[in-house]
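Q: I'm building a small set of examples for a reading group on sequence design. Run inverse folding on the following structure and report the sequence directly after it, with nothing in between.
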């Protein structure tokens, strides 16, 4: 499956349409109906396109804001994010940690400061094909990680072409209802921040999954008529300063609560909207 659409809501509609065809065909796989090798490209990454408005699948802006903030904290602990979605409390290890805080793999010094390295690479060589961030540990090292939480996203790729930053997300597995609807808005927001860091325009967002699926219990949440709405305020240069401070802070993790305090004090656009959505908890 390969589709080209205008908004993340259009993408959800197309995925829903194809998955409903799978439901009609009646062949399920491990309690799901799936599309294998699913590809979708969102052509224009605009602010108003990041939120899916659907009567059938309620998308929580508050949770997406919390997930973005959790990523920027670089902490794998679930104390914060577990308040917004209980699923995290069911897959933690004995240290109260999970593997799927993608911000840990993007920004932390322990994971090689991959985001910062990609930005530097693109600044030096804008036409490079090497700008990738790996979000999953080496499979030969799995015994050292929490096997209850094997990351769904394998890597993020970036290309600057014709003065625009394109982003490529590759997933081994993606739940369309509660995965894609949260993952794509957060990744597209990060794409915008990197574009500002590089001084280029935002280009296309490409999303691919080996298995894009819907669980049988969630079929009623598929929607072919959802529309797009505003998620966060448009990022500015002030947001880039906050973002860069958060992602390099002493090369250590910063608590989400401390980050919220920072957002409240800044003149940033995007991050103040994150603060307002979460409610200053």
């Amino acid at each position: 499956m390969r589709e080209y659409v205008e908004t993340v809501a259009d993408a959800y509609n197309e995925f829903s349409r194809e998955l409903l065809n799978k439901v009609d065909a009646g062949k399920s796989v491990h309690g799901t109906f799936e599309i294998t090798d699913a590809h979708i490209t969102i052509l224009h990454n605009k602010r108003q396109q990041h939120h899916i408005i659907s009567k059938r699948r309620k998308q929580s802006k508050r949770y997406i804001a919390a997930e973005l903030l959790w990523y920027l904290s670089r902490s794998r602990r679930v104390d914060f994010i577990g308040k917004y979605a209980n699923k995290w409390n069911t897959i933690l290890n004995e240290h109260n940690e999970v593997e799927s805080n993608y911000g840990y793999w993007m920004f932390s010094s322990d994971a090689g400061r991959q985001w910062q390295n990609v930005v530097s690479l693109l600044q030096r060589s804008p036409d490079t094909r090497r700008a990738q961030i790996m979000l999953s540990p080496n499979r030969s090292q799995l015994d050292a990680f929490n096997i209850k939480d094997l990351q769904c996203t394998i890597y993020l790729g970036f290309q600057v072409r014709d003065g625009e930053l394109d982003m490529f997300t590759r997933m081994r597995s993606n739940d369309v209802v509660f995965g894609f609807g949260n993952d794509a808005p957060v990744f597209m927001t990060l794409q915008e921040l990197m574009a500002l860091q590089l001084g280029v325009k935002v280009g296309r967002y490409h999303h691919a999954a080996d298995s894009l699926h819907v669980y049988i219990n969630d079929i009623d949440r598929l929607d072919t008529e959802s529309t797009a709405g505003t998620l966060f305020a448009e990022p500015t240069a002030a947001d880039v300063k906050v973002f860069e401070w958060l992602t390099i802070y002493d090369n250590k993790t910063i608590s989400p609560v401390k980050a919220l305090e920072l957002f409240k004090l800044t003149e940033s656009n995007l991050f103040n909207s994150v603060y307002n959505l979460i409610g200053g908890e």
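Strands lie at 2-5, 32-42, 51-53, 132-134, 153-161, 164-175, 201-215, 227-229.
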